[in-house]
Each structure stands twice: as C-alpha cells, then as structure tokens.
Amino acid sequence: MIYFIVFGxxxxxxFGSFGGQELEAVWYSSRYFYVLILGAVLTPVVIKKExxxxxxxxxVLFVSIGLFILVNLxxxxxxxxxxxxxxxxxxxxxxxxxxxxxxxxxxxxxxxSYQQNVFPVYSSLQVKTNEQYKRVSLGGLVLTLIxxxxxxxxxxxxxxxxxxxxxxxxxxxxxxxxxxxx
Length: 182
Description:
Layout: H1 2-18, H2 31-46, H3 55-77, H4 99-111, H5 118-124, H6 130-159, H7 167-172
Helix pairs in contact: 1-2, 3-6
C-alpha cells in the first residue's frame, strides 16, 4: 500500500510539474488518479496463481531500480545543471530523533517484510530443500540491502539534510532556480 501512495505522489508531482501545477491541484496531479491507474494495470498481476508467472515483473522491477540508481548517479556526478544541497558531513553521522527518523525506519521495515511470501517462494524452487531456500533468502536480503544502501547514499549526497523519508518526494519537488529539473 505504501508503494501505491509513493507512486501516486511521485507521478502526481511529475505530471503536475509538466503543467505547472502543485500536487493535488488538478486531476492529473492527484495521487488518487495514478493509484487507480496502477491498480487497474496490476489487477491481472494480482490474480496470478504461481510466482513463476511473475518472472517478467521481477525483471522489470530490477531494471527500473538499476536505471533509477544510474540516472541519479549521473545527476550527482556528471550533470552540470544539478546543484547538490550544501551540508556538512558531520550532520549525517549524528541522527536526530524526530518523526522523520521513525517514518524512515517504517519504510525499511516494509522492504524486509516478506514473510507472507515464504511458502510461495519455497514452492517455486526447483530443488525444494531448506538449504536452497536459505541461499535464495540470503541472496534476496543482501540484494535488498545493497539497493537500499546505494539509493540512500546517492540521495544523501544529492539532497543532504533536506532528504525526506522517501527520496521520491525529494526528486518530485526538486526545482533548482525555479526550473523543473527532472
């Protein structure tokens, strides 16, 4: 559900910025409009019975994450139009215990809450042993950790101490010199 909300907010900000509108100002910048579209597109995916039928969706997901990381890395290192937020590194190593820290932690918990998929993943293994499942599960956890750390570090260097609990909120609202950047 959180991903639907983040997708709706990001799409609303993106398409609203093309029309010069703020989030929720008009129908095409509304969260609900894009959540309905995503729900309609994902309905056939939800009724699939086997995880093996969703292999294409996993490929699309990892390609999208890889492109997201590469584009943001390019923006941070190569693009001359990008202006990173000035901040000292000292701020990054001393966390502030605020509501933002708690909401950020809840997003990380969602990323690692896959217990409802244990049995479908196990049943989709070619060799169904506990050892094989442990290897697959460990690989998934390590890959998730790498993705979260990579995106976190890139976005920390991009947005500094102004980073939101979801970096997509920063990306959707970044307007250097009052120009739509993304």
